[in-house]
Amino acid sequence: MNEKELIEKCKSGEKDAFKKLYETYSQYAMGICFRYTGDEMLAEDVLHDGFIRVFAAIHSFQYREEGSLKAWLKRIFCNESLYFLKKNKLWNNFIPIQDYDVPEEEPDISSWRTIPKEVLMQYISRLSVGYRIVFNLYMFENLSHKEIGKQLGIKEEASRSRLSRAKAILTKQIKEYISKHA
């Protein structure tokens, strides 16, 4: 069953189609939720709430082409994750970074490709919420600093600063990983 057929069956209320939708996209959605929350249990809560939103709004989804469902789900789970963090007052939860030297220039992230994806995702999940949100919105959602600032209610410069600090923290952790496993 392709995306278009799956959507049509969900819109007509077929329970098996909703189950198939969940089974097909729950791992993908969980990855998005975990990327923002940094905690598996919180991510599961967001995943649950996100699918409730998906099922309630499926009738309004307009299929455009293959991949449009996945893009729609990505936006829902990203927004649901941000809403969860804000609602639970985790939005501006920062951890001091005095242990990390923040470089004046952008860190070289080319070394990031040399470590396993699971390790990198684990490091991202350990960033403080404020840094993790900006990092995810910039790196994974391809939002500009202006768009991030507008969405989070922060200045564009604050978005740039948080991204730079997140990259610095991750670069330091990756260098340590590489030196340990070289």
Question: What does this molecule look like?
Answer:
This protein is mainly alpha-helical. The protein has two domains: 3-87, Orthogonal Bundle (Rna Polymerase Sigma Factor, Chain: A), CATH 1.10.1740.10; 110-181, Winged helix-like DNA-binding domain superfamily/Winged helix DNA-binding domain (Arc Repressor Mutant, subunit A). The chain is built from eight helices and no strands. The protein has helices spanning 3-11, 15-37, 40-57, 68-87, 117-126, 129-139, 145-152, 156-181. α1 packs across α2 (15-37). The longest helix is centred in the last third of the chain and has 26 residues, at 156-181. The protein is globular, with a radius of gyration of 18 Å. The relative contact order is 0.12.
Q: Layout of SSEs?
A:
Blueprint: H1 3-11, H2 15-37, H3 40-57, H4 68-87, H5 117-126, H6 129-139, H7 145-152, H8 156-181
